[in-house]
């Protein structure tokens, strides 16, 4: 099979990092500067498009034909080439080595992967400075009669270095790919990645007017708070930690930190009304973050859509998707019933009425973030998601039969768990009955304890503080006693992983899951056909529990591979989340085959942009609830609704 390795250097006045590649290539001044490539093992060539060189005919033919193209972060190369040359770049003809690296638990940057794999060729360290010089606009200080960007003729020596940098990137990317070839990604996953690329290319429509009103509302509220804070404290900048700490000290309150976690205690300790109000204002100003709306405004394309906001295998421990730029994966639950009214009030620009109806803007603005996403004209959203998917998967994986029966029948897992924990009749855990008091115990226990969580996990999940703290220890024991097979699964998974590393062998766990040691990597083979990776696994003494424990290497925030310790509960969590991800992946492929145009998916939820009069909630949920061949006996159930703007049901 012929492979064409590609790496580009480009220019655009739009910031790639904050706006995304689809917005980046829409800039009128976008262009490809250097086109580095190599067929198979051929020498690397670099075409200087600024010097009127032409991309060779065989390369252009390969770009248009069914020849496999590969790049590190191929979404960038695909999108840039399609724009620059005005051609279609079918993702099914491409392969992304960045995604390939993520599947193996490696860093997401080329430099990080090259170092982790210890390949001979390394990324040119001069790259960042050269990119800054040639590929981004000059700083504002160079405007006003001076140049706004640097061209090759401004520094021919640097330009030659940039050409060699581009050449070296192709060399490094090809060497990385050769190393990764020892661990092939299943063909089914490349097909899924191609679907992912089509979803990202399609994007989702944004209500531009609504977003602009939200940004203006937040700005005006912040200005009001700042004016009051200045008048109260007399400070030039009440948002300055140093200035506000000094003012509070003068008013009788020594402050170590103004971080939000400290605020409740500081408010309790405020010595007077002025200090209390100053802290309140600081706390409120911290809530006015407008990052989601700002991201929508930055990334919105000319046709009012945002694209490229899903990262395939972004959570590389479980292969789940992660959010990019417009981050839709960590939004608060909708807590108001009249979203449509609140949305229209904000969209009309009546901020005063909005505040009268819903209180301070930060709350209602956070509630309305989802509603900034709207269907295409003549369409509506159909939203469908799996019910209690992680609970279903862990019960199936552990063969916890009583739970599986719940999921196959009424599905009321919180009530059933409470009944199992407290030895009361399931039928009595209903509103109005004395035993309904046990339901919160079942719910919090179910959310907190499935992956070995203890008291701290319970405290985190008990958001409404419905359970006395002195009952947390007892609740953990009751949940574990009610779920003996799940508890056993934690220890079975840990022992299987340890034995696979210890004996450099393969150890079966359950339902097609097995731990396998190969070439310095511990793999967790999943029933769907792909494998989670734990690089450089070692067995080391766990001093906390005085027993052997498992460590592996994973990238930290900087991309450096560092040792991490894991145990059975976390291993099971990885398995469950990965299998749940695979269930969603199966559904996305099925929905696409049925003609549903998915524009977004978040956790276990799929959002289709469907023409009015075509498709239905019933059909989408039926497709998602169908059995999966590789997971016989796993009881899936989906629910859904239609809406005119994105929301949580």
What would the keywords be for this entry?
DNA-directed DNA polymerase; EC 2.7.7.7; five-stranded mixed β-sheet; 649 residues; alpha+beta; DNA-directed DNA polymerase activity; 26 helices; single chain; globular; 21 strands; Nucleotidyltransferase, domain 5
Describe the structure in your own words:
The chain has 649 residues and is an alpha+beta fold. It is 45% helix and 17% strand. It has 26 helices and 21 strands. The strands form 6 sheets. The protein has a 5-stranded mixed sheet with strand order 3-2-1-4-5, with helices on both faces. The protein has a 4-stranded antiparallel sheet with strand order 19-20-11-21. The chain has a 4-stranded antiparallel sheet with strand order 12-13-14-15, with helices on one face. The longest helix is centred in the middle third of the chain and has 26 residues, at 208-233. 43% of the residues are buried.
